[in-house]
């Protein structure tokens, strides 16, 4: 699997990226190597998305896999993967929000302190991407463990009333393909993001509000990148979302957009 992915990434590096500058000046310069336009519409402009390949060292990656697996085992016990989310979006998954991983003060032991140290680096990278003029407050880390290729996430837009406009995650174990579709033009306006292990990906604003996202099951032809099937086994992501902070009388951005239409 990894040799196949390595070959795919190597070929991607020699493929001309679309002539589109990421909207945020601090977006990682390699972002467009991991983006494939699949619809007839051009890529979103602004493209408020960034990916940092090899963000984690291999040791950091392996430590996070171990600590995430331990945490989920304590929370779920002998219970297997869940077959259906309350809103039927996710299949074959375990998920949890871990408040103990927010800061060094909330870590319960040295192992959790090491996790917190890596997640602090994640938040620093996301803050740098957003820029100093856009300070955010981060919520607790959210874990999502997908069983194997016989699992996936259906197309959906997150409940943005419950969090802010920014989300990012580190990718563990297995590569995945994330498909983005415009909520008003899903048949023509869509693109893919290849998220390899050890990468950090980030999305905000128009990509978060105007586009659904999904991770197809691997028997779906959409779980491919630039014409090649991407095999996926177990896949874990540790996600960070900014807190929704509103002034008195202010509507969430999503609700404000709806009321103005």
TL;DR?
The chain is an alpha+beta fold and 261 residues long. The protein has helices spanning 2-13, 58-76, 110-130, 206-209, 253-260, and strands at 35-37, 49-52, 90-91, 93-97, 142-146, 152-156, 166-172, 176-182, 190-195, 200-204, 211-215, 224-225, 228-229, 235-241. The strands form 3 sheets. The protein has a 6-stranded antiparallel β-sheet. Strands 2-10-7-14-5-4 form a 6-stranded antiparallel β-sheet.
Give the CATH superfamily: Alpha-ketoglutarate-dependent dioxygenase AlkB-like
Number of strands: 14
**What name is given to the CATH topology?**
Jelly Rolls
The coarse overall form would be globular
Helix/strand-derived class?
Answer: alpha+beta
What gyration radius follows from the Cα positions, in whole Å?
Answer: 18 Å
Cα(first) to Cα(last) distance is: 46 Å
Helix content: 10-25%
Total helix count?
A: 5
N-to-C SSE string, H for helix and E for strand = HEEHEEHEEEEEEHEEEEH
CATH architecture: Sandwich
Name the average pLDDT: 85
Protein name: Alpha-ketoglutarate-dependent dioxygenase AlkB-like domain-containing protein
């Amino acid at each position: 699997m990894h040799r196949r992915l390595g070959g795919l990434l190597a070929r991607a590096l020699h493929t001309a990226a679309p002539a589109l500058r990421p909207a945020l000046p601090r977006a990682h310069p390699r972002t467009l190597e991991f983006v494939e336009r699949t619809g007839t519409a051009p890529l979103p402009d602004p493209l408020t998305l960034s990916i940092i390949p090899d963000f984690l060292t291999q040791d950091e990656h392996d430590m996070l896999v171990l600590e995430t697996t331990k945490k989920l085992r304590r929370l779920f016990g002998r219970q297997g993967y869940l077959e259906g989310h309350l809103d039927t979006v996710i299949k074959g998954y375990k998920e949890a929000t871990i408040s103990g991983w927010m800061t060094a003060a909330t870590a319960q032991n040295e192992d959790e302190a090491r996790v917190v140290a890596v997640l602090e680096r994640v938040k620093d990278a996301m803050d740098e991407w957003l820029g100093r003029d856009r300070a955010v407050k981060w919520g607790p880390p959210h874990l999502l463990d997908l069983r194997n290729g016989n699992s996936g996430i259906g197309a959906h837009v997150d409940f943005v009333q419950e969090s802010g406009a920014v989300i990012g995650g580190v990718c563990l174990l297995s590569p995945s393909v994330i498909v983005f579709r415009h909520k008003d033009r899903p048949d023509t306006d869509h693109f893919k993001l290849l998220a390899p292990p050890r990468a950090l990906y980030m999305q905000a604003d128009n990509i978060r509000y105007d586009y659904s996202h999904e991770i197809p099951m691997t028997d779906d032809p959409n779980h491919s990148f630039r014409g090649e099937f991407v095999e996926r086994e177990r896949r874990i992501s540790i996600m960070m979302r900014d807190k929704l902070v509103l002034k008195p009388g202010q509507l969430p951005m999503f609700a404000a957009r709806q009321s103005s239409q």
